Amino acid sequence: MPEQSNDYRVVVFGAGGVGKSSLVLRFVKGTFRDTYIPTIEDTYRQVISCDKSVCTLQITDTTGSHQFPAMQRLSISKGHAFILVFSVTSKQSLEELKPIYQQIVQIKGSVESIPIMLVGNKCDETQRESPGLARTPLSRPPLSPPPSQNGCDSGAVPSSSVPSL
Ligand SMILES: Nc1nc2c(ncn2[C@@H]2O[C@H](COP(=O)(O)OP(=O)(O)OP(=O)(O)O)[C@@H](O)[C@H]2O)c(=O)[nH]1
Ligand SMILES: [Mg+2]
Questions:
Q1: Are 89 and 122 in contact (CB under 8 A)?
Q2: Cα–Cα distance between 112 and 116 in angstroms, integer?
Q3: Which helix (H) or strand (E) is 99 found in, with range?
Q4: Whose CA is nearest to atom 8 of ligand 1?
Q5: Which of 117, 119, 143, 139 is nearest to 55 (CA)?
Q6: What's the fold here for domain 5-134?
Q7: pLDDT tens-digit profile of 17-51?
Q8: CA 152 to CA 124: how far, in whole Å?
């Protein structure tokens, strides 16, 4: 639980190039860029209305490079909710989420009360490597991120699906 009840830290994880920054920028600024600029770590603050009260979301957009394990551990220990992003064009990007999920479980102890969302991005691409998962019919949990590039559904999967990773 957040120390201040209306402050939530959301951390976005996923392999390099799957579109984490694009999803975050789409949510925060409503923009999309074609150019790929790898992230080290960026943090955004967004005030949102949630359950009739005002909340501050602090969104941490992490690197996909695996070069900073200490930063990853710190982000997990500080995070209240997690968005795990893969690209539907790359099975490998889904595989890379397993150790991240396991690390969240290890650091948080129990994840039953922690929102974790699995998001299949790049749904506009025709060359899919994980079509079944990306097209699973969904019931949306509260922290659903926005559509990515062109408003199509990014294939968010409820956290209950994550253990099957
Ligand atoms: N076709 C398509 N391209 C996308 C989509 N989302 C992002 N991209 C492109 O994919 C590339 C990588 O996107 P980023 O958002 O920078 O990826 P990232 O996961 O933040 O990468 P790192 O910061 O290196 O971990 C960019 O060229 C984006 O334009 C999408 O939904 N569809
Ligand atoms: Mg990025």
A1: yes
A2: 9
A3: helix 97-108
A4: 19
A5: 143
A6: Rossmann fold (3.40.50)
A7: 999 999 999 999 999 999 999 999 999 999 999 88
A8: 7
Q: Given the CA of residue 16, which atom of ligand 1 is nearest to it? A: 25
**Nearest-atom index, ligand 1, CA of 121:** 31
Question: At residue 99, what is the residue type?
Answer: P
Q: Tokens 């967004």 appear where?
A: 46
Give yes or no for residue 122 CB within 6 A of ligand 1. yes
Distance separating alpha carbons of residues 78 and 45, to the nearest angstrom: 15
Whole-angstrom Cα distance, residue 116 to residue 145? 12
pLDDT digits (tens, 9 = 90+) for 138-159: 444 444 444 444 555 555 554 4
Among all bound ligands, the one having the nearest atom to the CA of 147 is 1
Which pTM was predicted?
Answer: 0.83
Domain extent listing, the chain: 5-134
Is the minimum distance from the CB of 124 to ligand 1 under 6 angstroms?
A: yes
User: Of the residues 27, 32, 36, 63, which should be mutated to test ligand 1's pocket, given the most ligand atoms within 8 Å of the CB?
Assistant: 36
Q: What distance in Å separates the CA atoms of residue 95 and residue 47, rounded to the nearest whole number?
A: 33
Q: In this structure, are residues 149 and 31 in contact, taking their beta carbons and an 8 Å threshold?
A: no
